[in-house]
Specification:
Number of domains: 2
Organism: Eragrostis curvula (weeping love grass)
Number of helices: 16
Protein name: Major facilitator superfamily (MFS) profile domain-containing protein
Largest sheet: none
Number of strands: 0
Strand content: under 5%
CATH superfamily of the largest domain: MFS general substrate transporter like domains
InterPro entries: MFS_trans_sf, MOT2/MFSD5
Order of helices and strands: HHHHHHHHHHHHHHHH
GO molecular function: molybdate ion transmembrane transporter activity
Structural class: mainly alpha
Keywords: Membrane, Transmembrane, Transmembrane helix
CATH topology of the largest domain: Growth Hormone, Chain: A
């Protein structure tokens, strides 16, 4: 493996270590022992849940290939996963608000464990059922756990500012360190130990079962609106009305869909971008480098949030940088002549793109705790899970369209489209800040007007 990869990984590791070890008093928030215990419990569960997700990633495509399915068959399996998340996600989100977020988290564990079990079968229909279950589980992973955390945090009377600490640490560990370790562990089980590509899925099921046991034994239940007179359709109408009547919620949903849609598209594009002529690149090591970049971003986000910087302000810069990094493949395609030789090592243009992609992953690391912070501020508690899954409908629809047409457009067109979406997210983020500031100033004026009669 070339020295370049080690240099990039080592540089990122050094920066992450320096940021974490060099935190000053301004970067740390004084909390209570009770909160720390609550936070650590959630982070442990979240890390176990994410390990169950990350363990499956490196080998799912390879497993389908081993069962003899071609690219078209595998593409339809992936579309089934995103499609089921789009179709059923809103329903399970509403049920989480009404029936309880703890129950929804347990449902996630059961659904994903069943999905893992289906990987033992080479039957296409069984694998399709597994993808549908996995899509439902993904919707719950990105809505029910956060909804439970926000509600439980507020119910226990903790400082709202402390919520950012939990978000940042959960992303730093669950979406960074755990992802790296899970990738290495999956490789160890499947290749080094010789258990084959289905072994990581069995390990994922074990981690999910452990997490479910902790949830059952230590988590309390909380709800959005559990009143008996509100059925599923009423929940949908309430969530749709909240989005339509509050520009801040609508903007937040659009921003999330634009960024995450670009992010998931990037997942399918980075490999052909770095090896357009079938260059020999270390996929696992590059994946670990991306996750380290995400850890760097979450570490930066924890500092920004601890210093109480306005999320709506700095995220405009993050989206703008993201737009530039995903436009880099378009630029390098014109400025750096592509090699015509098949195989070999990564090209100079590929090296430039890899640095840009690492920057993009750092932006992803900043995005997650920051979008969680904004969701906790703007989304009403009574329909939190429902609204969050409403946000995922255009996201999943976009990814399904991209997957279906992935061979219809040149890769530079796809990256250019993602760059435009991210630039649009930056513009909408600017609009969200303006609307939010206007709302706060109007509220302050109203409060002042109410106080004036009391203070003649």
């Amino acid at each position: 493996m070339e020295l370049f990869y080690y240099l990039v990984f080592g540089a990122l590791a050094g920066v992450v270590a320096a940021l974490e070890l060099g935190k000053s008093g301004k970067d740390r928030v004084a909390t209570s022992p009770v909160f720390n215990s609550f936070k650590n419990n959630y982070i442990l569960v979240y890390s176990l849940m994410m390990s169950g997700d990350w363990l499956q990633g490196p080998y799912v495509y390879y497993l389908y290939q081993q069962y003899g399915f071609d690219k078209g068959d595998i593409g339809r399996l992936f579309i089934a996963g995103f499609g089921s998340s789009m179709l059923f996600g809103t329903i399970v989100g509403s049920l989480a608000d009404k029936q309880g977020r703890k129950r929804a988290c347990i449902t996630y564990c059961i659904s994903y464990i069943l999905s893992c079990i289906t990987k033992h079968s080479p039957e296409y229909k069984i694998l399709m059922i597994g993808r549908v279950l996995g899509g439902i589980a993904t919707s719950l992973l990105f809505s029910a756990f956060e909804s439970w955390l926000v509600a439980e945090h507020n119910k226990r009377g903790f400082d709202p500012q402390w919520l950012s600490i939990t978000f940042s640490k959960a992303i730093f560990l669950g979406n960074g360190l755990v992802a790296i370790v899970a990738g290495l562990f999956a490789n160890f089980l499947a290749d080094n130990m010789g258990f084959g590509p289905v072994a990581p899925f069995d390990a994922a099921a074990c981690f999910l079962a452990i997490g479910m046991a902790i949830i059952l034994s230590s988590w309390g239940e909380n709800y959005g609106d559990s009143s008996d007179n509100k059925d599923l359709m009423t929940q949908f109408k309430m969530a749709a009305k909240a989005i339509a009547s509050d520009e801040k919620i609508a903007l937040l949903g659009a921003i999330q869909s634009l960024f995450e849609g670009s992010m998931y598209t990037f997942v399918f594009l980075w490999t052909p971008a770095l090896s357009p002529n079938e260059e020999d690149i270390p996929h696992g090591f590059i994946f670990a480098t991306f996750m380290l970049s995400s850890m760097l971003g979450s570490s930066v986000a924890s500092r920004l949030l601890a210093r109480k910087l306005k999320v709506e302000g700095y995220m405009q810069i993050v989206f703008s940088i993201s737009a530039f990094t995903l436009f880099l493949p378009v630029v390098t395609n014109f400025l750096v002549p592509p090699s015509s030789e098949k195989g070999g090592s990564i090209s100079f243009g590929g090296c430039l793109q890899l640095l840009g992609f690492c920057t993009f992953e750092s932006c992803v690391g900043i995005f997650w705790p920051s979008i969680m912070k904004m969701r906790s501020q703007y989304i009403p508690e009574e329909a939190r899970s429902t609204i969050m899954n409403f946000f995922r409908i255009p996201l999943n629809l976009f990814v399904c369209v991209v997957l279906y047409n992935v061979n219809a457009f040149p890769i530079t067109v796809m990256f250019g489209m993602c760059s435009i979406f991210l630039f649009m997210a930056a513009i909408l983020q600017r609009r969200l800040m303006v609307v939010s500031d206007l709302h706060r100033s109007t509220k302050a004026v109203e409060m002042t007007a109410e106080d004036e009669p009391l203070n003649p």
